[in-house]
Design goal:
508 residues, alpha+beta, Transcription Termination Factor Rho, Rna-binding Domain, Chain A, Domain 1, Jelly Rolls, Herpes Virus-1, 4 domains, four-stranded antiparallel β-sheet, 20 strands, elongated, disordered C terminus, zinc-finger
Length: 508
């Protein structure tokens, strides 16, 4: 098929104006315009709408033209016919002085310097964009070739839409006022054939459609010093500036030639919204709870080579993106963690600024790799009063609630006694086992040892029992026992002042 397309293009390039008009009239296309416009229109037909009937018509016009030329007298000696006489090689019609196939192809077809392929070589490919479904390829990735030594280059491209494509655009819904869902977009990337390329704009880019310039996404502002602002490189919508008819559209790309090679391509796409992608994900990306449970068991399976056994893993029910409870728990199949993020906010975020990076592990999480965790979705409906759960080794789970309540309890008991009486002594406690200890601890303490605001100041105060003075209180008891033994031998002695701090009573 590729060989037939090349052959048909070569035949079209050798046609005269009358031949081109007959070919365009055969398919109902406009026959008016200059020769290069007719050539462009005919090549577009061959490239995108080549049917067996059209190919047969091209061969008939080609054979009719060269049959007339062969009937004219020629001074050359005739040679015997061979099987290839009816289908001469492309170099035969291109050897005339008025036709230069490489120059005409590069100048009039797209102006991008795309020469006919002499040998098969890898083509530039662009990455698939989740928010754009490709419907037709209007222009394959074509390299921007500088035409001079100037830094600022201009590369024109001429093409026309088919009636079917025009109808698809007109009948599509509006995403917002003036923006159709079916669009003609321009994509630019590096001319690298090693892997699919992401969109990348050349310096000083400007895009002109027919007679008006098209807006190109600007730079993101950078608040960090020394960091250059970045430009979001995404497809450029040209639909609102195009002729939605059989008329020819002219696109001119202005770009800066600073050593790097770029390629441009034109596509007819259908733009999707985050809601569309969410519905598709719920349809094709839902993972059964039993499969998710098996993944949990695999994560917690005992490793014989490891000295540390993992008995459980905690998972938060709060989305790390917006710090709200998960509604559609989602993660990428390539992620090694069980923690999920909310698919609704993740898709909305990438609709505004596409990065497709996991907010948990900061690794690529493309749309085609996303799954909805069926087990966590079930847990969210059953556990509404907890913000965290723990998966256990056998695949079960439990909510994490009790630990928060325990963390709020006091670390140690605090005993506050009532106000002192007129002698500076607190009233006896009615609690069994407490009054005796407190009373013995207060024995031998004079009225001047109350807390601040006691009898010395004329204000009642509260005595606090310090339960942390076990070691010091035991040493003081030993000293009191020795003093009592001496008192038995020498007689009564005057009362001593309590060495303890004011307001603190040791607990025996």
């Amino acid at each position: 098929m590729a060989a037939e397309l090349v052959e048909a293009k070569n035949m079209v390039m050798s046609f005269r104006v009358s031949d081109l008009q007959m070919l365009l009239g055969f398919v109902g296309r406009s026959k008016s315009g200059l020769k290069h416009e007719l050539v462009t229109r005919a090549l577009q037909l061959v490239q995108f709408d080549c049917s067996p009937e059209l190919f047969k018509k091209i061969k008939e016009l080609y054979e009719t033209r060269y049959a007339k030329k062969s009937a004219e007298p020629s001074p050359q000696v005739p040679r015997p016919l061979d099987p290839l006489a009816l289908h001469p090689m492309p170099r035969t019609p291109l050897s005339g002085p008025t036709v230069d196939y490489p120059v005409m192809y590069g100048k009039y077809l797209n102006g991008l310097g795309r020469l006919p392929a002499k040998a098969l070589k890898p083509e530039v490919r662009l990455v698939k964009l989740p928010f754009f479904n490709m419907l037709d390829e209007l222009l394959k990735p074509t390299e921007l070739v500088p035409q001079s030594t100037e830094k600022l280059q201009e590369s024109p491209c001429v093409f026309a839409l088919t009636p079917r494509q025009v109808e698809m655009i007109r009948s599509s819904r509006e995403l917002q006022p003036g923006v159709k869902a079916v669009q003609v977009v321009l994509r630019i990337c590096y001319s690298d054939t090693s892997c699919p390329q992401e969109d990348q704009y050349p310096p000083n880019i400007a895009v002109k459609v027919n007679h008006s310039y098209c807006s190109v996404p600007g730079y993101y502002p950078s608040n960090k010093p020394g960091v250059e602002p970045k430009r979001p490189c995404r497809p450029i919508n040209l639909t609102h500036l195009m002729y939605l008819s059989s008329a020819t559209n002219r696109i001119t790309v202005t770009w800066g030639n600073y050593g790097k090679s770029y390629s441009v391509a034109l596509y007819l796409v259908r733009q999707l919204t985050s809601s569309d992608l969410l519905q598709r994900l719920k349809t094709i990306g839902l993972k059964h709870p039993e499969l998710c449970k098996a993944l949990v068991k695999e994560k917690l399976r005992l490793d014989p080579d490891s000295e540390i056994a993992t008995t459980g893993v905690r998972v938060s029910l709060i989305c790390p993106l917006v710090k709200m409870r998960l509604s559609v728990p989602c993660r990428a199949e390539t992620c090694a963690h069980l923690q999920c993020f909310d698919a609704v906010f993740y898709l909305q975020m990438n609709e505004k600024k596409p990065t497709w990076m996991c907010p948990v592990c900061d690794k690529p999480a493309a749309y085609d790799q996303l799954i909805i965790d069926g087990l966590l979705s079930k847990i969210l409906s059953e556990c509404e009063d907890a913000d965290e759960i723990e998966f256990l080794a056998e695949g079960s789970w439990r909510p994490i609630r009790a630990e928060k309540e325990q963390s709020c309890s006091p670390q140690g008991p605090i005993l506050v006694l009532g106000t002192s009486d007129t002698n500076g002594l607190p009233p006896a406690s009615s609690t069994p086992g407490v009054g005796g200890s407190v009373g013995s601890a207060l024995g031998g303490i004079g009225s001047g040892t109350g807390v601040a605001g006691g009898p010395e100041t004329g204000k009642p105060g509260a005595d606090v029992v310090d339960l942390t003075l076990d070691s010091s209180s035991s040493s003081e008891d030993d000293e009191e026992e020795e003093d009592e033994d001496e008192d038995d031998d020498e007689g009564p002695r005057p009362k001593r002042r309590c060495p303890f701090q004011k307001g603190l009573v040791p607990a025996c």
